[in-house]
Specification:
mainly alpha; 4 helices
Length: 107
C-alpha cells in the first residue's frame, strides 16, 4: 500500500486502550478511553509534550502543521474564508458563526 494510505481498522469488541473492557459494535474505545490511550502514547513516545510530538514529525514554528493539514487533499481541514483560522469543517462553521456572524450564512 502507498505510504499515504492508512490501513482499514476493524474494531475487536474490546477497548483499544488496553483496559480489556467490552465495547459496543463498531467502537474502538470505552467512553473517554480514547483520551486515556492518547495521553499514554504521548507520555510513552513524546514525554507528554505536544512540542516533542510536532518536532518528531517535522513541524514547529518553521513548518506549520495547521497549514499542512489545510494543504493536504486527504485531510478534511480547511481555512476560514475571512481570516487565518483553520480547522475541521464543523470547527470552521462554529468559528464563522461566532467571529463572522454577518458572513457565516454566505459560506
Amino acid at each position: 500500500m502507498p505510504s499515504n494510505e492508512k490501513p482499514r481498522l476493524i474494531p475487536t469488541g474490546k477497548c483499544w486502550c488496553g483496559c480489556g473492557k467490552d465495547v459496543g459494535l463498531g467502537k474502538f474505545f470505552a467512553a473517554g478511553h480514547d483520551k486515556i490511550a492518547e495521553a499514554a502514547l504521548m507520555a510513552l513516545k513524546y514525554d507528554g509534550s505536544v512540542a516533542q510530538l510536532l518536532h518528531a514529525h517535522g513541524f514547529g514554528s518553521h513548518h506549520s502543521v495547521r497549514h499542512a493539514a489545510v494543504a493536504d487533499p486527504d485531510c478534511s481541514w480547511e481555512k476560514c474564508a475571512d481570516c487565518n483560522y483553520s480547522g475541521a469543517p464543523a470547527s470552521i462553521a462554529n468559528h464563522r458563526k461566532k467571529d463572522h456572524p454577518d458572513r457565516h450564512a454566505l459560506a
